[in-house]
Write a structure and sequence with these properties.
The chain has a domain of about 30 residues. It is about 35% helix and about 10% strand. β1 and β2 form a beta hairpin. The chain is α+β, with helices and mostly antiparallel strands.
Length: about 60
Amino acid sequence: MPKMKTRKSAAKRYSFTATGKVKYKKQGLRHILTKKSTKRKRHLRQSGLLSSPEAKRAHELMPYA
């Protein structure tokens, strides 16, 4: 049976922790930053964790991660 392919778009967006949770970079920190508060920008710098249904979907997109 051939190997399954990894969805490269998902591989670039998500990474996995040691316990199997899925990390991602939060959106909204690329441009138009002057109207956003400092607190909001500081919280956007931290990585987020996907919820369990979304994490299951990410595991399907990356079978060998």
